[in-house]
User: Which sequence fits this backbone?
């Protein structure tokens, strides 16, 4: 192994261990001072129970260090994020803010690697976590319309969890001033499979029920699941799709051992694949005031 490659290998190890950027890790691998990774504990309000566990680059966690054994409670929270404290907390009353040196556990190193791979996907796609599912929403909406289903609205939500909501108007209202008619919502979020929910006259909806389509089923499969649920014969047979997913497309659910906060590179890579779907690229062209396939 050349010295240059040895530096790279050491940098990747430091990146996973410390949860830092690759270029910073590369500098450290060449002799820079290695910082001790740490988390910050901060009382949420002075003299108020409840603490925030602040980890660089991750969402805050909460811990009840006042009501339980502080070290045991901190160990529980750190274990969820793949870290382990290097020593016990100070004895006596804790200050309102303190820094706790930690190290990454083996699961934590795997978590850091998933973070790295996921961020690379977002960079290549030019879209972040909260918008990368927009193209999948467009592709499914297009498939429903091509299946002859009465789509009247479609939108994707960038909250947590990420969501897709597609509205079908099964029977239009006789008088638009008296409501929207009979409507059905087709629902998706990144923590489960596709669902449906009937709208009520008051504008609320029934509790969502499983549709029978997986979280990353192909758009035509989702459309077929909706037709089966509605017991509708095809108005027109769906044409063969002119888009096919890449070989590494992963239509299954997230692995059972990943929490909702854990990154799943395979899931995000599959969502990113829809950025090449004709329905999405056509929508982008139309939004730019150009026709599909035009240049300049």
Assistant:
């Amino acid at each position: 192994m050349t010295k240059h490659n040895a530096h790279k290998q050491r940098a990747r190890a430091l990146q996973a261990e410390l949860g830092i950027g690759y270029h910073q890790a590369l500098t450290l691998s060449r002799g820079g001072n290695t910082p001790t990774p740490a988390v910050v504990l901060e009382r949420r309000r002075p003299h108020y129970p409840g603490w925030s566990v602040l980890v660089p680059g991750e969402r805050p966690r909460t811990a009840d260090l006042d009501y339980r054994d502080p070290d045991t409670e901190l160990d529980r929270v750190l274990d969820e994020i793949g870290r382990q404290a290097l020593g016990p907390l100070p004895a006596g009353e804790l200050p309102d803010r303190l820094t706790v040196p930690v190290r990454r556990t083996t699961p934590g190193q795997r978590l850091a690697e998933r973070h790295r791979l996921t961020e690379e996907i977002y960079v290549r796609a030019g879209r972040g976590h909260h918008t990368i599912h927009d193209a999948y929403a467009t592709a499914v909406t297009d498939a429903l319309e091509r299946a002859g289903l009465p789509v009247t609205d479609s939108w994707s939500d960038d909250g947590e969890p990420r969501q897709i909501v597609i509205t079908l108007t099964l029977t239009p209202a006789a008088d638009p001033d008296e409501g929207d008619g009979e409507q059905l919502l087709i629902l998706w979020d990144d923590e489960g499979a596709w669902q449906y929910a009937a709208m009520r006259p008051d504008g609320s909806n029934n509790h969502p029920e499983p549709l029978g389509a997986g979280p990353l089923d192909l758009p035509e499969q989702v459309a077929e699941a909706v037709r089966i649920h509605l017991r509708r014969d095809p108005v027109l047979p769906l044409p063969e799709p002119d888009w096919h997913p890449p070989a590494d497309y992963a239509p299954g659910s997230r692995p059972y051992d990943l929490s909702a906060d854990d990154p799943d590179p395979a899931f995000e890579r599959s969502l990113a694949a829809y950025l090449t779907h004709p329905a999405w690229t056509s929508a982008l062209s139309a939004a730019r005031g150009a026709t599909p396939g035009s240049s300049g």
Q: What stands out?
A: The mean pLDDT is 82.
